[in-house]
Write a structure and sequence with these properties.
Elements lengths: L3 H21 L10 H21 L2 H6 L3 H29 L4 H23 L3 H4 L2 H29 L9 H24 L17 H4 L9 H26 L3 H24 L4
Length: 280
């Protein structure tokens, strides 16, 4: 992979899309003040915009001269732009206190647009792996989105308990359970990356002489990206166990659980970055 910015775009896109799923389709809707949706969605809209912006130049390197790859990247770009715009609309609608249902429709629409954008993005795998790579590509992106989105929303939700101090801990317990599932998804994402080409091999299977210098010599050694990915995910799994225990205790333990999410927010992108170096 000779375009690390494209990998960064994948991470931002996954976090935005996964986060939108867990904020607009979660049991927190209608039970928390709408400031929660405003706060989370605003950050996710910025992530989606960042993913769109990050894709513009590096994807030209990934696509090369392939007309099919160019078409796939164009549709991906449009989907991410729609995601960012619709998410921003949802934030504005809720902020100006129009009917909340309108905001939720915009939020769900942003979620659908984001998920749809993963399909053409995963299609880039077909240029190297043939038709069979498409389904695996979608699955790998979805699993990464679950990991990053759940952890980000969990951290923000933990902070929201400082706003609504009498809020039941059942929502944090729900998020902690989702986080356990997200850890499983994260392991799956890293495992699937083992089926991809090493980080220094391009879409056509050719060795990329500039790969080491543009990313890191360490990551080009054997299966180092897999070792890093699985190692970091093991740490996140330990954190998920603490989160579940602390969330069930409630009270001040919610703050401790939020602190655990802080650590996970730092570690999860590192695991996904290691895995997605092999994606294209």
């Amino acid at each position: 992979m000779d375009a690390p910015a494209a990998v960064l775009a994948l991470i931002l896109a996954e976090a935005a899309i996964g986060g939108l799923v867990f904020v607009w389709l979660a049991p927190t809707w209608g039970n928390l003040r709408h400031g929660y949706e405003i706060l989370v969605t605003a950050t996710l809209a910025l992530m989606a915009w960042g993913a769109w912006a990050s894709l513009q130049s590096p994807m030209a390197t990934v696509a090369g001269d392939s007309a099919r790859a160019l078409s796939l990247t164009t549709w991906t770009s449009r989907g991410l732009a729609a995601t960012a715009i619709l998410a921003a609309v949802a934030v504005v609608v809720l902020a100006v206190r129009i009917q909340p249902v309108v905001g939720r429709i915009a939020g769900i629409s942003a979620t659908v647009a984001g998920v749809a954008s993963l399909v053409p993005l995963a299609g880039l795998r077909t240029l190297r792996d043939g038709a069979g790579g498409w389904g695996l590509g979608v699955l790998e992106l979805v699993l990464g989105a679950i990991l990053l989105g759940a952890i980000w929303d969990g951290m923000v939700l933990g902070h929201w308990y400082l706003v609504e101090r009498r809020l039941s801990n059942r929502y944090m317990v729900w998020m902690a359970k989702v986080n356990v599932g997200a850890v499983v998804a994260g392991f799956g994402s890293v495992a699937l990356s083992s089926l991809n080409a090493p980080p220094c091999v391009g879409l056509a299977g050719a060795e990329l002489s500039t790969c080491v210098s543009t990313i890191s010599p360490l990551l080009s050694v054997g299966n180092m990206t897999l070792l890093i990915g699985f190692g970091v995910m093991a740490l996140i799994a330990v954190i998920a166990g603490f989160n579940l225990r602390l969330a069930n205790e409630g009270g001040r333990s919610i703050q401790a659980s939020t602190g655990m999410f802080y650590l996970a927010v730092i570690l999860a992108p590192a695991a996904e970055f290691a895995a997605k170096l092999r994606f294209f």
